[in-house]
Amino acid sequence: MTSSATSARRSLDEDLNRAGFYPLLVADVVHDALDERVPLSHLVHLETHFDRTEVHRHITVLVLTEDMLVVTHVDDQQLDDAGHQVMAQISTESVPVSQINSVVLSYVYAQPQDYQPSDLARELTLSIAWSGGQRLDMGPAGCGDPQCDADHGYTGTIVQDDIVIRVSAEADGSQAVQNAKAFARALRKVNTAVPVLARSTELPGSRPRLAGRLTRSHHQR
């Protein structure tokens, strides 16, 4: 293994240790999924959710190689009230870079009227689509008349995304936002370098589907 590859692995492991979410377990799963590929860039995103008296944590790890995007997601779950019995649920997905259809970055800036080039984004949302799966968001339609009580049916939007990660400077720190931006840049660079003819938006014999592919997209706080 070259020194650059060793450095890349060390950087990934350091970020997993810094996240502190079963770092040895997560590192073993991620490196196994990489199958000896050398990481070009990575993004480690840990989130904590509070549900009444329960605390739920989960981590999403994105690792980019020259030909593959490896997505790992780990949740933990308490099996007893005392928290002595805990189970970890792990999923990995290896996506050829040639199958990635879009990389979308959405930014939130505070006080845009006072923007300076050195200002950092307050939030960043990274959306990556590769499978053709789509999310359908629907709600009651309405009109501009506040007195109108007619049934206007439903309206909605169809969003294509396989994973969505939202990073907030307030919750995750400004460096986390910059890390997410750097990862997106690396992903775009590798993805756009793939010849157009090599891309495949639909596998042979498959059909477009409306499906919730957001089991890893825990971007609501």
Arrangement of strands in the largest sheet: 1-2-3-4
Structural class: alpha+beta
Radius of gyration: 20 Å
Q: Count the strands?
A: 10
Order of helices and strands: HHEEEEEEEEEHHE
Residue share in β-strands: 35-45%
N-to-C span: 40 Å
Counting DSSP H or I runs of 4 or more residues, the number of helices is: 4
Which outline best applies? globular
Overall mean pLDDT stands at 81
Taking the sheet with the most strands, its summary is: 4 strands, antiparallel
Helical residue percent band: 10-25%
Low-confidence region ranges: 200-221
Write structural notes for this entry.
The chain is α+β, with helices and mostly antiparallel strands. The chain has four helices and ten strands. It has helices spanning 3-19, 23-34, 169-172, 174-193; strands at residues 41-51, 54-64, 68-78, 86-96, 102-108, 123-129, 133-140, 154-160, 163-168, 209-210. It has a four-stranded antiparallel beta sheet with strand order 1-2-3-4. The chain has a three-stranded antiparallel beta sheet with strand order 5-6-9. α1 (3-19) packs antiparallel against α2 (23-34). The longest helix is centred in the last third of the chain and has 20 residues, at 174-193. The chain is globular and about 70 Å long. The model is unreliable at 200-221 (pLDDT under 50).
Task: Give a brief rundown of this model.
By secondary structure, the chain is α+β, with helices and mostly antiparallel strands. The chain has 4 helices and 10 strands, in the order ααβββββββββααβ.
Q: Which short descriptors sum up this protein?
A:
single chain, 221 residues, alpha+beta, four-stranded antiparallel sheet, three-stranded antiparallel sheet
